[in-house]
Design goal:
alpha/beta, Rossmann fold, 2 domains, six-stranded mixed sheet, 9 strands, globular
């Protein structure tokens, strides 16, 4: 059985005068350890779907199972990383990183040591007692990653976590996150508008169409790219070929609106 299954997911938003269908009949599965990207034009329901996978939003139709259970019954299985780091400005980096463990009553000497060691592994040695305002945007996102990983989630949901960063920092963080997730054998779902990012980080790419949001096509990233870091992938011919194929599909979707 697949680690994550979404079956016939549909979702509707209601107002006093209308009903908007954000998602319609979306089905897919994800194996443990896979990195999946969700791409598509604006309004295709990517973020809505991510909210459903997290259990923050109940679908109007269909079911989601993660490790055999609905996402709202999961205990510390899901980590969520957003575009903004949402670090508490009045708390130190150490306090921010440990907050999930504290809230889940998992904080002890061993989990604290593990979380702070991870902070050092991702290049933030010596910043434990500093406050978020003292760090750059890239360093803050690294701290947000450390906070997310501290509770040892099985599934990471990434909602455009690099989009607010400058290009060089973005590329560096893509490599870091890719290598960390592979090393820890984590399953991840990334929502992004950056096609290059999707190709360079993913095992598979799910392309969505809009109005209503629905799964249009699934692309498997070639093995020769999946063995490379995101930075290295961008220089390969197979990357350019896949980019062109998916770009043409995106253009077709835009033209058919």
């Amino acid at each position: 059985m697949s680690f994550l299954t979404a079956e016939n997911i549909g979702h509707h938003y209601f107002s006093l005068s209308s009903v908007t269908t954000a998602l319609k009949d979306v089905s897919f599965s994800i194996e443990e350890g896979e990195f999946i990207s969700l791409i598509g034009p604006s309004g295709c329901g990517k973020t809505t779907l991510l909210s459903i996978l997290s259990g923050l939003l109940a679908p109007s139709d269909g079911t989601v199972k993660i490790d055999g259970q609905p996402p709202d019954l999961q205990n510390n299985v899901i980590g969520y990383m957003l575009q903004q780091d949402y670090l508490f400005p009045w708390k130190t980096i150490e306090e921010n990183v440990l907050i999930g463990l504290k809230l889940n009553r998992q904080l002890n000497d061993d989990t604290k040591e593990s979380a702070l060691q991870f902070l050092q592994k991702i290049g933030l040695k010596g910043v434990e007692k500093q406050f978020p305002r003292q760090l750059s945007g890239g360093m803050r996102q690294r701290a947000a990653l450390a906070r997310t990983m501290a509770v040892n989630p099985k599934l990471l949901l990434l909602d455009e976590p690099f989009s607010a960063l400058d290009y060089q920092t973005k590329l560096n963080l893509e490599d870091l996150v890719f290598e960390i997730l592979k090393a820890y054998k984590k399953t991840a779902v990334l929502v992004t508008h950056d096609l290059g990012e999707a190709i360079s980080m993913s095992d598979r790419i799910l392309l969505f169409a809009a109005n209503p949001g629905r799964l249009h096509k699934v692309f498997t990233v070639p093995d020769e790219l999946r063995r490379q870091t995101p930075f290295e992938v961008r220089s390969k011919d197979a990357y350019s070929e896949l980019f062109s194929i998916i770009w043409r599909e995106l253009e077709t979707l835009e033209e058919s609106k």
